[in-house]
């Protein structure tokens, strides 16, 4: 930062105070009063508790904004028409309609009025009292994700905190909602009782995948974070003067702005380091903070990359929130600051000072707007600002969201063109480097084109691989998906590069929803004419005999036979498995409908109807387990609330894991995990029939997704035991003839039952054995 300040100091030749022209020109919005009279809501007119105005813009919907001042205004057309002040319906009986805090969560306003939380859904035009908050609260906080409609992004917009500012942190109750504030529950912060100081705020820092509590004690403040690896450390303390308002800038880059009348601080890493903003008031005057510059802040506005401040001294200050710079430049104005004035960005490099004006004739207010074009002001020769040395910075990835699952990587490319003869320093910043183990490597390749050097850049991102032995400063909880942003910027760019915004993408390190598993079905029972595909599709059912299954999956025989409807739509034709071959399904990973690889890692199987006529080739001992392996029985005991199919990557613990301390007490129990380091296989009992298996990939290091599916197999080739006995006592040829005659009569009746399948399997076996000797019904077998 020091380097940059020096650069800025040598390149800026500002002569700011000598401007003759006004900073901006006023115009007044006065529309919709006669023709579009909106019915004013009967209710209590809200007012904002703070003497400083605030303007909250919806980061994703550019025309939606909330003005907080002596009146409260809500607009969906960016204040392009006159408005009634916002009222809360009398039916909600709020008492004093004093608004202390507000947040826009997607399509609802979350408002704290008289220490309670109310919701106004502006699309449905309905008000609700939020549920679950038992104690008084003063503030709400939240963030909106505009990158995509991916569930990870939607969840961010739905998360809201409610808390009481200034309460003793060790005993206060913080509330969290993942329903945009409709319903709250108590937020459990692990070490809350040990923390000292009072509560300055609770925020979900999505750029860091952490919840941060701001603690205030004796004029200093610092953040405490909820998750590993930051859970054991605090952010660095900073001066806390007055009651700081905290602004989370849009875009999840981890930029926070703290402000009060006499202080303005900024953090670029979700509060881990917080610095005062420097103030430049002419070529040779640089103050290290707002209080040193002796100005009083009235209103603050920020967008993804810019910051603007309106002071009571009628000055406007502007600064870039680039990766490195953090100083403001002063533009003098005249009479721009009144008690009701508020500041907002309408676009990149465009600031508007907005003032509501009452109308004596109508209850609706008009709006005075004063628009400032920052780029145009800086171009004024009087400012002597160096021209921006970057001509172009562009990349396909800007404003997009990507997913990196385990074992995958992401390549982003960008193009940077400097002005002829200038050189640029590209810089990529990852907002969540330590806890993700994300590495961004810039490969730069310059080439000359039309006398210009262009820079093509590849940014390679991947998640550090762990196997539990990663750098301890990376997230150890690989079971929890996290997020981060990556921003590409030019480190040494000038203040005049107003329109040249950094490129930012959001990266979700988590489940890639396009991933699916598919069980290879190379030899299906239909291809071999063992099962009839037409019959299977026609409401086919089969019987599982009562001594072969347990509806409770405990291996106990059932009391009655089970009739199973075969779900052909879902399962297709079963694949064919010969009973006497040890078997393991071949599991394939597919992504976006394309085959990726055969999955070799650990998975488990369970027959969905409770068939237990199979076991495993290995035992805990022969699988070389160091600890007692888990099995379906132990999983069902511990996760009873999730039903029987609860074995997944979240609760799987390998018996080969050196940290697994369960003693190996029963070495001879079957080892129920397939794949991974062992050659374990399934061994079938001597029984023909359809098995429908649930399969779940349990290796936590393979993917963040819960990869699971169901599939069916047909086990064939086993002699039904009773038939073997009969066949041994009768002369084989006679038996075959008799059976042939009988089958010709019985098969049409039997084919649709489990027994029929059994006989059919047996018949196929016999046919193969004596194909030449007997004239078998070829058409059938
Ligand atoms: C909001 O309140 C209305 C009645 O006032 C109720 O019908 C509706 O279910 C509530 N909505 C939610 C999400 O609680
Ligand atoms: C931080 O989290 C890690 C992993 O969840 C845990 O082992 C550690 O004890 C936690 N530290 C504190 C101070 O709570
Ligand atoms: C906070 O106040 C102290 C003393 O009043 C002052 O020294 C310090 O610079 C102030 N800090 C900020 C960030 O304004
Ligand atoms: C700060 O400004 C006020 C009013 O503008 C002035 O009275 C005061 O002397 C100034 N203080 C310093 C230290 O410049
Ligand atoms: C960047 O990626 C592109 C396409 O993936 C490749 O052609 C180019 O060689 C790469 N450049 C560098 C410097 O790695
Ligand atoms: C399918 O079979 C079940 C019972 O075997 C019967 O209740 C149902 O009506 C049948 N459905 C069709 C479409 O044939
Ligand atoms: C499951 O494991 C437990 C020990 O953890 C063992 O007592 C039990 O017999 C096992 N069950 C099966 C079906 O192997």
Can you characterise this structure?
The protein has 781 residues and is mostly beta strands. Among the domains are: 130-276, no CATH class; 390-509, Sandwich (Immunoglobulin-like), CATH 2.60.40.10; 515-716, no CATH class; 734-777, no CATH class. Helices cover 12% and strands 35% of the residues. The chain is built from eleven helices and 51 strands. A six-stranded mixed beta sheet has the order 25-24-29-28-27-26. Strands 3-8-9-10-11 form a five-stranded mixed beta sheet, with no helix packed on it. Strands 1-32-31-30 form a four-stranded antiparallel beta sheet. Strand 45 (587-591) and strand 46 form a beta hairpin. It is elongated and about 105 Å long. Bound molecules: 2-acetamido-2-deoxy-beta-D-glucopyranose (7 copies).
* General form: elongated
Instruction: List ligands, each type once.
Output: 2-acetamido-2-deoxy-beta-D-glucopyranose
C-alpha Rg (nearest Å)? 35 Å
The main β sheet shows up as: 6 strands, mixed
How many individual helices?
11
**Residue-averaged pLDDT:** 85
Total E-strand runs: 51
Ends apart, CA distance between termini: 82 Å
Low-confidence stretches: 1-20, 466-470, 724-734, 769-781
User: How do the strands of the widest beta sheet line up side by side?
Assistant: 25-24-29-28-27-26
Percent range for β-strand residues? 35-45%
Query: Helix share of residues?
Result: 10-25%
**Which structural class best describes the helix and strand composition?**
mainly beta
Domain CATSPERD beta-propeller: 43-370
Subcellular location: Cell projection, Cilium, Flagellum membrane
Transmembrane segments: 719-745
Pfam families: Beta-prop_CATSPERD (PF15020), CATSPERD-E_C (PF22850), Ig-like_CATSPERD (PF23747)
């Amino acid at each position: 930062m020091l380097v940059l300040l020096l650069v800025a100091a040598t390149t800026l030749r500002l002569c700011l105070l000598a401007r003759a022209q006004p900073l901006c020109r006023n115009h007044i919005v006065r529309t919709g009063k006669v023709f579009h009279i909106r019915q004013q809501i009967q209710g209590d007119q809200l007012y904002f508790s703070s003497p400083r105005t605030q303007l909250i813009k919806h980061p994703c919907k550019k025309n939606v904004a909330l003005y907080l001042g002596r009146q409260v205004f809500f607009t969906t057309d960016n204040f392009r028409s006159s408005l009634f002040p916002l009222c809360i319906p009398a039916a909600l009986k709020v008492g004093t309609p004093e608004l202390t805090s507000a947040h826009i969560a997607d399509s609802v306003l979350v408002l704290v009025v008289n220490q309670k939380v109310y919701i106004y859904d502006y699309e449905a035009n309905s008000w609700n009292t939020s549920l679950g908050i038992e104690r008084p609260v003063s503030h709400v906080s939240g963030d909106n994700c505009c990158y995509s409609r991916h569930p990870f992004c939607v969840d961010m917009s739905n998360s809201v905190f409610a808390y009481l500012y200034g309460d003793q942190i060790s005993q206060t109750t913080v509330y969290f909602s993942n329903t945009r504030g409709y319903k709250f529950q108590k937020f459990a912060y692990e070490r809350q009782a040990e923390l000292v100081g009072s509560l300055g705020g609770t925020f979900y820092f999505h750029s860091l995948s952490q919840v941060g509590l701001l603690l205030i004690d004796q004029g200093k403040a610092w953040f405490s974070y909820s998750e590993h690896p930051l859970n054991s450390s605090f952010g660095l303390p900073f001066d806390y003067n007055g009651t700081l308002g905290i602004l989370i800038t849009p875009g999840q880059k981890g930029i926070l702005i703290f402000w009060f009348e006499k202080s303005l601080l900024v953090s670029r890493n979700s509060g881990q380091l917080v610095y005062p903003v420097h103030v430049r008031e002419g070529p040779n005057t640089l103050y290290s903070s707002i209080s040193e510059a002796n100005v009083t802040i009235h209103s603050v506005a920020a967008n993804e990359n810019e910051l603007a401040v309106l002071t009571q001294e009628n000055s406007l200050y502007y600064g870039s929130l680039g990766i490195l710079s953090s100083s403001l430049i002063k533009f003098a104005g005249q009479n721009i600051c009144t008690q009701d004035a508020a500041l907002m960005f309408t676009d990149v490099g465009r600031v508007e000072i907005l003032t509501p004006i009452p109308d004596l004739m109508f209850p609706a207010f008009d709006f005075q707007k004063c628009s400032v074009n920052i780029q145009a002001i800086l171009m004024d020769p009087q400012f002597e600002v160096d021209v921006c040395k970057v001509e172009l910075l562009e990349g396909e990835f800007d404003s997009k969201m990507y997913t990196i699952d385990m074992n995958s990587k992401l390549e982003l490319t960008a193009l940077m063109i400097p002005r002829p003869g200038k050189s640029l320093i590209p810089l990529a910043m990852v907002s969540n480097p330590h806890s993700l183990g994300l590495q961004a490597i810039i490969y730069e390749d310059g080439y000359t084109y039309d006398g210009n050097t262009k820079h093509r850049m590849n940014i390679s991102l991947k998640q550090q691989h762990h196997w539990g032995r990663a750098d301890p400063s990376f997230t150890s909880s690989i079971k929890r998906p996290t997020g981060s942003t990556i921003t590409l910027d030019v480190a040494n760019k000038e203040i005049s590069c107003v329109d040249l915004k950094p490129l930012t993408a959001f990266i979700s390190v988590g489940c890639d929803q396009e991933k699916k598993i598919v069980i290879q079905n190379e030899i299906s029972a239909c291809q071999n004419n063992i099962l009839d595909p037409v019959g299977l599709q026609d409401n086919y059912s089969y019987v599982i005999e009562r001594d072969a299954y347990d509806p409770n999956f405990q291996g106990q025989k059932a009391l009655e036979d089970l009739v199973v409807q075969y779900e052909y739509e879902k399962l297709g034709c079963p694949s064919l498995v010969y009973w006497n071959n040890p078997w393991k399904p071949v599991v394939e990973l597919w992504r976006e409908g394309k085959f990726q690889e055969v999955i070799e890692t650990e998975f488990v199987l369970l027959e969905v109807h409770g068939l237990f006529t199979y076991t495993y080739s290995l035992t805990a001992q022969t699988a070389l387990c160091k600890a007692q392996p888990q099995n379906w029985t132990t999983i069902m005991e511990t996760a009873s609330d999730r039903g029987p199919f609860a074995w997944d990557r979240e609760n799987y613990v390998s018996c080969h894991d050196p940290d697994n301390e369960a003693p190996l007490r029963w070495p001879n129990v079957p080892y129920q995990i397939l794949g991974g380091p062992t050659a374990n296989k399934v061994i079938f009992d001597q029984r023909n029939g359809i098995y429908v298996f649930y399969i779940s990939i349990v290796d936590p290091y393979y993917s963040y997704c819960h990869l699971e599916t169901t599939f069916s197999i047909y086990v064939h080739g086993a002699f039904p035991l009773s038939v073997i006995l009969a066949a041994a006592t009768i002369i084989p040829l006679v038996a075959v003839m008799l059976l042939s005659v009988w089958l010709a009569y019985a098969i049409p009746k039997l084919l649709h039952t489990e027994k029929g399948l059994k006989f059919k399997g047996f018949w196929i076996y016999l046919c193969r054995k004596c194909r030449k000797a007997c004239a078998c019904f070829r058409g059938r077998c």
